[in-house]
Structure formats: C-alpha cells, structure tokens
Amino acid sequence: MADIDPIDRARAALADRAELPGMSLMEHLEELRKRILRSLAFLAVGFALAYGFHNTLVAIIQKPLLDVGLRMTMTHPTDALNLILKTSAVAGAILASPFILYQVWLFISPGMYANERKYVTPFMAATVGLFLAGTWFGYRYVLPGAIRILVMDFGKNFSHMITIDDYTGFFLAVILGLGICFELPILIFFLALFGIVDAKFLLRHFRYAVLAIFLVAAIICPMPDPFSMCLFASPMLVLYFLGVAVAYFVHPNHRKRKEKSAT
After folding, report:
1. Do 126 and 186 meet the contact criterion of CB atoms below 8 Å apart?
2. 157-195 burial code (b ≥16 CB/10 A, e <16)
3. What is the DSSP code string of 124-182?
4. I want to staple 51 with a disulfide (CB 3.0 to 4.6 A). Which of 88, 116, 158, 190 is the partner?
5. Would you state the pLDDT for residue 37?
6. pTM score, two decimals?
7. Euclidean distance between CA atoms 43 and 48, whole angstroms
8. Which pLDDT score is estimated for 1?
9. CB–CB of 6/60 below 8 Å?
10. pLDDT tens readout for residues 207-261
C-alpha cells in the first residue's frame, strides 16, 4: 500500500483540528500581538543581562583565535561597539529563549487537544537543550578545527588580518547553524504530533533524509574537506533517528492504541 502524501496528511490534520473550539480572527490577532510584545520584553531583559557580561562574552568568542596566537582586528572605529551589541543581542536571545518558547506554546496550544498540551515541559526542555548542545558541539569541536585548518594550514603562507566583522559572522554561522540543525527532532516532533509523518514514513524515506542532511552539512560546513562535512552530518543523522523514536511515541495512532489498551 502506497504511503499517503505528507501534504494530504497535513490537510487532514488541519481539517481535524478545525473542529476544535477556537477563536475568531481578531482574537487570534490580538493573542499574537500579546505574545509578540511579551517576547520582545523578554528579549530586552535578556539583552540587558547579557550586556552586563559583555567583556566575558567577547573573551569567549575570541578564545578560539587566541588559542592559535591571533586576535581580531578593528578596521572601523565602531567595530568594537558593534561586536559588543551583537554579542549581547545573541546571548540575550538565548537567555530569553525559554520564555519566548513558552509564549509560542501558549499561542499554538488552543489548536491542540488536551492530551497534547502535556508535552509543553518536554518540548521546552528539549528545544533549549538541543540548541545548547549544538552550539557547544560547534564551539568545542567544529570552530577550533575550522580555524586550525583554514588559518593555520591553508593560510600558513599568508599574513593574517582577521577583522571583527568577518570573524563574528563566521563564528555565528557555525555556532547558530549547528544550534538550529540540532533542532531536527523538534521539527519531527510537531510533524508527528499533528499526524503529518510517522516513524514508518521516516524510516522508509531515510535515504532522502541522508541526502538532505549531507546537503545541509555541505552548505553550513566552513571547511572544504569531506571529513569535516561528515563531522557536521554525523550528529544530525543521530538526531534524525532520535526524531524517529519521538515520532513513534507522539503520533496520534500510537496514542490511540495506547488509550485502547489501557481501557
């Protein structure tokens, strides 16, 4: 029997949830406005807290360069200020992320069944934990390796002038890119929760997932060698299988079977 198209599954899931008691369009817009304003307030608080530790944050960012005997170079009078503001903004967003995620959950929860709302705590813990795990993996392994290969190996015959703007862009691309990639199980969680995909579908189309994962790894990997690309792709493959397990447990069919066996 052929698989049901994921688009058809999504349409069926939306049609099913349309029967849930909901709000009018204006009520939805008012709720969205409230959640956005609260999220912005949390961002402002996070920025203020992070700015108080901006010297420590800048030292953390520059450490991979200092480890190989290099420092960032200013090419414009505002470079140092821009670095402090950008660093504080990113760190503040990370600090505020649990509170912002909770606002997101409060916005989408009216479209969920009562037994689905119990996932709020695992959702928030897993989302923040996976993002931090991705950033730690990038900072601990990928970024130092990239600097050694790109600067100390490929660039050993050249003078080094690594500007603040170029380095911070490179740093954030690696750290945030891996942090976002580590959210793959969360994406699968929602697709399975709404009945769009299930564990069998994910396993049956594993070869396409491998291709997509390696394409993403090739795009975000800052190093040109195949080994580095595999280093990026390997944790995403593990997370894909973790997502398969998550899809099995949260899919509506599994929950219905569990409820029938309990009665």
Report:
1. yes
2. eeeeebebbebbebbeebbbbbbebbbbbbebbebbbbb
3. HHHHHHHHHHHHHHIIIIIHHHHHIIIIIITTTTS----BHHHHHHHHHHHHHHHHHHT
4. 88
5. 94
6. 0.76
7. 9
8. 41
9. no
10. 888 898 888 887 777 666 677 778 778 888 988 998 888 888 877 665 566 556 6
Which residue is listed with tokens 């949830």?
Answer: 17
Q: What sign does the CA torsion over 247, 251, 256, 257 have?
A: negative
Q: Give the three-state DSSP class for 189.
A: helix
Instruction: Report the alpha-carbon distance of residue 54 to residue 139 in Å, rounded.
Output: 18
* Residue with the two structure tokens 């989408």: 108
Residues 6 or more apart whose CB falls under 8 angstroms from that of 257 comprise none
Q: Residue 26 pLDDT > 60, yes or no?
A: yes
Spatial distance between the Cα atoms of 23 and 132, rounded to a whole number of angstroms: 35
Of the candidates 182, 173, 180, the one whose C-alpha atom is nearest the C-alpha of residue 222 is 173
Return the amino acid letter for 197. V
Q: How many whole angstroms separate alpha carbon 89 and alpha carbon 70? A: 25
Residue 19 has pLDDT above 60, yes or no: no
Closest CA to 259 of 123, 120, 116: 116
